[in-house]
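If you are new to this repository, start here. Below is one unmodified record pulled from the training split, so you can see the exact layout before writing a loader.
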Amino acid sequence: MTQDGGQAVQIDTSKPHPARIYDYLLGGKDNYEVDQQAGDQLAAVAPEVWISVRANRAFLHRAVRYVVDSGVRQILDVGTGLPTSPNVHEVAQELDPDVRVAYVDNDPIVKAHADALLSQAGTTSIVLADLRDPRSIIDHPEVRGIIDFGRPVALFLVAILHFIRDADEPERIVATLRDALPAGSFLVLSHATGDFADDRSEAEAVYNGATATMNLRSRDRVERFFDGFDLVEPGLTQVPFWRPDSTPAPGSAEIGFYGGVARKNA
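And here is the target side for that same chain:
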């Protein structure tokens, strides 16, 4: 894992942070009281969030195994968030130690934790770049040091696009990344939605005081991110129902996360 060796990161605990809220909901320890309070507020208005984050994490693991079993040996994970074991590279490299993984996040807090917690490996790197500027990811020298864009890549955008506002043109962002991928590449994507609740304005409001807003989108909107890709079976589904390893947990039908995996064939 590459390290920048720069100055220590000053962690702002005055505002809840989406990655730390997510860590708290997953039962992690890399969070603060302000994040715990936000997580509890979110759970109060959307009780299914506790099983939702775990279902989304399980979807991530299944998708990693799927793309590796499909022959891809390079993964670009954008918006990786705080490390939660097993991480993408751990799941992938258990199947093939030669799988290369480039993690990307725009938050120095995430990178500081990753540098401290993730093991050193020449096939794995974490870099600072912003999804709102996709060319900064594609052209980043450390990303290029891990990822060969001349060979198939699995692009992971898991639980990240709902933190991108419409004003930042999320469809354009995904299209820019898509166009950098060769045929045979995959897109793995999950996204929060309000489709399975009468009103999610209170859940979105929890993030109004956080470092990034929550932007829930409908199924039709989420499907647009797969333009230029062919969804693999079973298509775009709630995350517990995407190729489950076992019977989905009770309450899964209420989970407000869509997930899908798609292949670029041209």
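Two things worth knowing about this chain: The radius of gyration is 17 Å. The chain has ten helices and eight strands.
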